[in-house]
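Hey, resending since the last one bounced:
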Amino acid sequence: MFTEITLSDHKRNDFVKFESSIRGIDEVLECHLISGGYDYLVRFMCSSIQHYQELMESILDRDIGIEKYFSYIVIKSPVVKSAIPLRSLVRTAS
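The structure tokens again:
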């Protein structure tokens, strides 16, 4: 599950409060601060949609500054890489 999260306020303490709270949630695999239309992109691993919904309700109950969120269910992952292709990232000078 991927979730776009927008915070209600954007002061430094708001980001610190959100990040420190989300860091301790076992189901959070990744959390990225994003530029653009929302603040964070979070990847969750949950056993079911019900599990995810209960988790989101508990996160909202923490009152950590979430204004809104949008959820995206992963149907299929045709590409998942666990290693960075360093050869293609590092160019040697000829």
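The two ends are 44 Å apart (CA to CA).

Sorry for the duplicate.
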